[in-house]
Amino acid sequence: MRIKVINPNTTESMTWKIGEAARAAAAIGTKIVACNPAGGPVSIEGHYDEAVSVLGLLDEVRKGEAEAMDGYVVACFGDPGLLACREVARGPVLGIAEAAMHAAAFVATGFSIVTTLARTRVIAAELVERYGMTRVCRAIRTIDLPVLDLEREGSEARRSVLDECKRAVAEDGAGAIVLGCAGMADLTAEVQQAIGVPVIDGVAAAVKFVEALVGMGLQTSKVGDLAWPLPKAYTGALAHMAVTNPPPCPMPTPRGRSTPRRSASRSASSRPAAG
Ligand code: 5HY
After folding, report:
1. What DSSP string describes 141-180?
2. Residue 265: its pLDDT value, please?
């Protein structure tokens, strides 16, 4: 199985870190291709950064289709352009915020998010609502440091993340922590060790969920709003973004269900004898 993990910002040291976290989580036999677009913001810290980053992100997904990738991870906590990516992908596409929140909700009845700048809190709050997590998300906390401080040797960022996670457990009653930036992926084990509750890195969670979905033989639905974009011309510098001939996308047979279930007699024969 081949999973393309896309860092929508253009900071290669962060892409490398994201790739390492993805490979550490991936099952044997899963090949991780970590990349970032050639052009775009060096970090994503607001709506404008997100909007501009989506073009490069979509380009990487479309290249992934030509490279026959089985699935994708959008490795930015704002899950920028997630639905647009799903429109141009056959395989499953997961955002790290979506994946991390669902993983947290599987292991705790309440979690807190620790993210970077206060101005990105509203983006996380919208995702909490969109993913139906308002009842489970206890708080969205920020360390008020720029994203790229997580890349800078000697910066306060790592310490601030740890302290904020400790406060979240003490003050929010959070039973789990969601790390609110792909650039925090390498802090997961250290923070979990220090605070004693599950700490979820969305990169790892998204890789595992994509593996599970592909393993079940599931692909992105091509009926309705996630169907291929309608073929039309795009003009000017964006002419290359036009989706001209979407490939046919027959639904695969669900894995493990290739042969129609045999009659009850089989299940009767395989069911252990009562009493
Ligand atoms: C991220 N920005 O995961 C988000 C984090 C944030 O460049 N990678 C970024 O603060 O929104």
Report:
1. EE--S-GGGGGSTT-SHHHHHHHHHHHHHHHH--SEEEE-
2. 53
Cβ–ligand 1 distance for 142 under 6 Å, the answer no
pLDDT tens, residue by residue, 163-195: 999 999 999 999 999 999 999 999 999 999 999
Q: Can you say whether the dihedral through the CA atoms of 90, 200, 15, 83 is positive or negative?
A: positive
Query: Are the beta carbons of 104 and 139 closer than 8 angstroms?
Result: no
Whether pTM exceeds 0.85: yes
Query: Contact, 99 vs 205, CB < 8 A?
Result: yes
CA distance 94 to 179: 16
Any ligand 1 atom below 6 A from CB of 182: yes
* Distance (Å) from CA 3 to ligand 1 centroid: 21
Output helix, strand, coil percentages for the chain, rounded to the nearest 5: 45, 15, 40
Q: Give the chain's mean pLDDT.
A: 92
Q: Residue holding tokens 């790290």?
A: 96
End-to-end alpha carbon distance in the chain: 43
